[in-house]
Amino acid sequence: MTRKVAIIGTGNVGAACAHYIVSSGFVDDLVMIDINEKKVKSDALDFEDAMANLPFHTNIFVNDYSQLDDTDVIISAVGNIKLQDRVEPDRFAELNFTSKAVVDVANKIKATKFDGKIVVISNPNDVMVSIYQKITGLPKAHVMGTGTLLDSARMKRAVGAALNVDPRSVQGYNLGEHGNSQFTAWSTVKVLDHSIAELAKNDGLDLDKLNEDVRMGGFTVFSGKKYTNYGISTAAVKLTLAILNDAYIELPVSNFREEYGVYLSYPAIVGRDGIVKQIQLELPKEELDKLQYSADYIKSKLPEEYK
């Protein structure tokens, strides 16, 4: 069975996704689409030049929406992160620009025979997932965002560094909006089978300071190089592979939660059919209140026609 993925938007993030996919031989066919034709054609040729020194072959197609007819997963990396270059960091700075671009792309997807899954990186993430789902008419379970999969990885990096363990030894989630109202659900965080509350007490960890480190992680990277790409592209490819592999893996991604009436990040089981099962966490009231606040914030920013 041929594996086929499309990346729409091949700037710093989309190109990093493509490089990870091509260098690892994850798919047979890769479709690359971008409004900057010179850039996307150059990237495709660059990858083809790499083929002779890779153990895998990938067929690459450029700027051809008809190739989406039999594509398994589309990764949307449409956006303009430079709009976040401001005193007060806010992913909603991209809302006007990216929503227009996403509406255009979503209508082009709808005009094809595409019947796969969409993984959205574009920011503000939860709003863009909603727009893609509404315009394409795909089932809600088939359109999802990377959401706090990246924020949760940043939390694991911060906690791991504080306790001198590999981030993969940290369990737990960041929930809500992929943006300023996201938060670390400390009640879910465990390290080597010990709760973070227990470890914080014993080791003198400042959880508020760690949470701020996580919340500002992306902007710290952005302030240094004016974009982020490796962390988010790795998250997007992990989510894409969960779909392609029918992995049934639990991931904190942006998925539509009926109880909040909006897309937001909450753990779900991901497989070939997209969001195959939603998890129900036992959260304390403080974290439930934060999650409700985050949901309300997303809804307040969602254009009326996409609610």
UniProtKB/TrEMBL annotation:
<dbReference type="InterPro" id="IPR001236">
    <property type="entry name" value="Lactate/malate_DH_N"/>
</dbReference>
<dbReference type="Pfam" id="PF00056">
    <property type="entry name" value="Ldh_1_N"/>
</dbReference>
<dbReference type="InterPro" id="IPR036291">
    <property type="entry name" value="NAD(P)-bd_dom_sf"/>
</dbReference>
<dbReference type="InterPro" id="IPR001557">
    <property type="entry name" value="L-lactate/malate_DH"/>
</dbReference>
<dbReference type="InterPro" id="IPR015955">
    <property type="entry name" value="Lactate_DH/Glyco_Ohase_4_C"/>
</dbReference>
<protein>
    <submittedName>
        <fullName>L-lactate dehydrogenase</fullName>
    </submittedName>
</protein>
<feature type="domain" description="Lactate/malate dehydrogenase N-terminal">
    <location>
        <begin position="4"/>
        <end position="145"/>
    </location>
</feature>
<dbReference type="Pfam" id="PF02866">
    <property type="entry name" value="Ldh_1_C"/>
</dbReference>
<comment type="similarity">
    <text>Belongs to the LDH/MDH superfamily. LDH family.</text>
</comment>
<dbReference type="InterPro" id="IPR018177">
    <property type="entry name" value="L-lactate_DH_AS"/>
</dbReference>
<keyword id="KW-0560">Oxidoreductase</keyword>
<feature type="domain" description="Lactate/malate dehydrogenase C-terminal">
    <location>
        <begin position="148"/>
        <end position="302"/>
    </location>
</feature>
<dbReference type="InterPro" id="IPR022383">
    <property type="entry name" value="Lactate/malate_DH_C"/>
</dbReference>
